[in-house]
Amino acid sequence: MDTKTIFKIDEIEKEFSIDNTPEFKYGDDQVLSNQNTDISYGQPWYENGYSELDFLSVEEFESLENGLIDSIRNIIKKEIPSLDLTDFTLENYHNFVKTDEEHFKVVTKTRDLFSEDFNFTIEKYLPKLENLLNYNLTDIDPINNRKLHIIVRINRPLSKDYNPPHKDIYEGMDNEGYIPPIINFWIPIAGATDKNNLPLAPKSHTINENSVLRTFEGGIIEGNKYRVRMIKSWNGDNSLIRSKVKFGQVLVFSSHLIHGLATNEEKDKTRVALEFRLFKK
Length: 281
Description:
By secondary structure, the protein is α+β, with helices and mostly antiparallel strands. It has one domain (4-58, 121-280): Jelly Rolls (Sandwich). Helix content is 17%, strand content 25%. It is built from four helices and 15 strands. The chain has helices at residues 58-79, 100-110, 126-133, 170-176; strands spanning 4-9, 12-17, 25-26, 50-54, 137-138, 151-155, 182-190, 199-200, 212-214, 219-221, 224-226, 231-234, 239-242, 249-254, 271-280. Strands 4, 5, 6, 7, 14 and 15 form a six-stranded antiparallel β-sheet that branches. A hairpin with a 2-residue loop joins β1 and β2. α1 (58-79) packs across α2 (100-110). The longest helix has 22 residues, at 58-79. The chain is globular. The N and C termini lie far apart (49 Å).
């Protein structure tokens, strides 16, 4: 029997299959986000858990977009050499990479990138992100010295290319008993609209874990399996709102904030976003 659940995105109810998802349970009696565990603590936007901030000039944004077009085109060439990529852009990605099998080959690479995988110096954007927070950032975990990857999110129109609602801290906490002190940056690059921007649950980073109903072993939504822990409800709620972030801006948010379910309701636009998760240096 197919198990389904409902989430609201911008007050519109939508039903999702969660068949074969691991057991949902409530967490312990604690609020995980605090001065010692959440490096967004003390930011002007901490109460809501996120903000859309001006980030790049028009010229800087065009440079970043062109760099990513070249980088993604090169990945596609390596993974699917038979494709003719004449007139390729990120927004029309779905007109070139047409099958789930081909798409999986590409996103297996784009969700796990490092500096050397880009055709430009991606580190040059780090000082700009630091200026937004007034402290230094690094992609090296200060506890275990591991380097965090960079993600290019590619979400095809009317597809299932999205995570379930989740918090980024849960996997490390469940597997290693360690809350990684990271902060999230989500930068729309192509095709982003009010029909496919990233949904968030404002203030959900301050909810007691005994009111968060989630899995502890990954999650399955619409038949896709994910490592992230799927959250079914929080304080009895299941509502998210899409960010209003625009091109040239960055969506910055607490790693304790519930987010995900970035369905792409556009009929002919692939949405592409660049995502950094960084530590306080």
